[in-house]
Amino acid sequence: MPAPKSPFRMFEPITGLAKGLWVTLSSMFEKPVTTQYPEQKKPVKPRFRGRHVLKRYENGLEKCIGCALCAAACPADAIFVEASENTDERRFSPGERYASTYEINMLRCIYCGFCEDACPTEAIVLGDQYELSFTDRREAIYPKEMLIEPVPAGGQPTPQKTEPGKFTRSVPEMKDPSD
Ligand code: SF4
Ligand code: SF4
């Protein structure tokens, strides 16, 4: 036998409406959580993967040795590297070669971080930059000049004239600059 119907059933739509309005009214007096971007920027999480940065040693030499392992590891075929020879008269990085061309196509990149993992010198790092905008497909290809970090204080820009035989190893014995 079906249960008898409540005599207050007719008020159910009104109580439902009141509950809904109460949620709206109570949230009107809560502190707003809106971030005034771009004036205010929220800090990213420590493991956030943003735009790539090509790192330098503390003396300004570039960490990238143009080996193209990052390009080989990239599942999206987003990286293009062309290497050239270093000399002590005109040195960009330690070791024999440096990246004379380094490009990343940001339209292809999926920010997987495989390039970072593959790099033997920790030259490429996915940083905390997330402001990527372009209006043209060609602008989405970031060249080395856009990716490389500024010369640290006390360092020199590249190319440098270096002491013969001092930077023959691709991974020199040198303190890393902090990220
Ligand atoms: S983050 Fe991934 S997809 Fe992007 S360039 Fe590196 S390896 Fe390629
Ligand atoms: S970023 Fe690293 S893996 Fe890529 S070419 Fe430079 S040294 Fe090699």
Task: Describe what this molecule looks like in 3D.
The protein is of the alpha+beta class and 179 residues long. It has a domain at 52-147: 2-Layer Sandwich (Alpha-Beta Plaits), CATH 3.30.70. It has 4 helices and 5 strands. The strands form 2 sheets. The chain has a 3-stranded antiparallel β-sheet with strand order 2-3-5. Strands 1-4 form a two-stranded antiparallel ribbon. It starts with 11 loop residues before the first helix and ends in a 32-residue tail after the last helix. Bound molecules: iron/sulfur cluster (SF4) (2 copies).
Which terms would index this structure?
two-stranded antiparallel sheet; Alpha-Beta Plaits; 5 strands; alpha+beta; 17% helix; 4 helices; three-stranded antiparallel β-sheet
Poorly predicted regions: none
**Rg measurement, Å:** 27 Å
* Secondary structural class: alpha+beta
Number of helices: 4
If strands are numbered along the chain, what order do they take across the biggest sheet?
A: 2-3-5
Q: Spell out which ligands are present.
A: iron/sulfur cluster
Main sheet specs: 3 strands, antiparallel
Q: What does the overall shape look like?
A: elongated
Average pLDDT level:
91
CATH architecture of one domain: 2-Layer Sandwich
The CATH top-level class label of one domain = Alpha Beta
Give the amount of beta strand, in percent: 5-15%
Helix content, binned percent: 10-25%
- Return the CATH topology of one domain: Alpha-Beta Plaits
- In angstroms, what separates the terminal alpha carbons? 74 Å
Number of strands: 5
Order of helices and strands: HEHEEHEEH
